Amino acid sequence: MGKFLIIIVAYALGQATGLKTETYSGYAYEIGSKKFIYKETHTEMFENGKHAGTETKYYDSKNKLVAQRNLDFSKSRHTPDFKTSDLLTGYQEGAIVDGNKVRLFVKSNEKEPIREKTLTVPEPFTVDGGFNYYIKDHWSELMEGKVLVFNFTVSSELNYFQLRARLVKDGSVGNDKAKVIVEPNNVMFRWLSDPISITYDMATKRILIYEGKSNLSNNSGKNYLARLIYPEQGP
């Protein structure tokens, strides 16, 4: 994540020539209870018009900073280096990508050592927030009804899994929106896990609503099942 860190430092020092930022927020509600869980604030950084990285900060219902994630898109839109840190528990996870070799790492809490594993991941594959760009870069195929199949790394499991993304036309969204379902490609895994539902703005191809497993964990250590709403603009 070296280049991304250089970009952040450049902003901090006021030397951000040719660099621009966009900031927006999303609001997460627990699926079922509709209870507000947290706010996430994204700062996207662009270098000469190219999206170089995103810093996301997570705030709880009392507006306390509880977690942070950095995505480095400088090498790839689909397979960014990333690191997520839970500031309350010390949990960390991330990935460092070199071609199709990915070093995944995870730290369960502040007392536990980091566990890591380097994998050779078959193409096409995505890492963390890179799956969103993969969908956007294959938008035409999705709109034509093609099912996208790709591998997705999961740092917490030190592994990767095959997912699929498909357009759903069930009448639940208007013509100015597109609903995409992301789920395991393996039918048995689909029975055991909840799909992710993403509503996109057709004009901007940015996310309006995300429903599924969250980046953050609850007090039991399990990821929230959340409905994320981006009222102004999303990723």
Task: Characterize this entry briefly.
The chain is mainly beta and 235 residues long. The chain has four helices and 15 strands. The chain has a 15-stranded mixed beta sheet, with helices on both faces.
Structure description:
By secondary structure, the chain is mainly beta. The chain has one domain (2-229). Helices cover 13% and strands 51% of the residues. It is built from four helices and 15 strands. The chain has a 15-stranded mixed β-sheet with strand order 8-7-6-5-4-3-2-1-15-14-13-12-11-10-9, with helices on both faces. A hairpin with an 8-residue loop joins strand 11 (159-168) and strand 12 (177-184). The longest helix is centred in the N-terminal third of the chain and has 11 residues, at 2-12. The chain starts with a helix and ends in a 6-residue tail after the last strand.
Topology diagram in text:
Blueprint lengths: L1 H11 L6 E12 L5 E12 L2 E11 L4 E8 L8 E6 L5 E7 L2 E7 L7 E6 L4 E3 L2 H8 L1 H5 L4 E7 L4 E10 L8 E8 L2 H6 L3 E6 L5 E11 L5 E7 L6
Parallel strand pairs: 9-10
Antiparallel strand pairs: 1-2, 1-15, 2-3, 3-4, 4-5, 5-6, 6-7, 7-8, 10-11, 11-12, 12-13, 13-14, 14-15
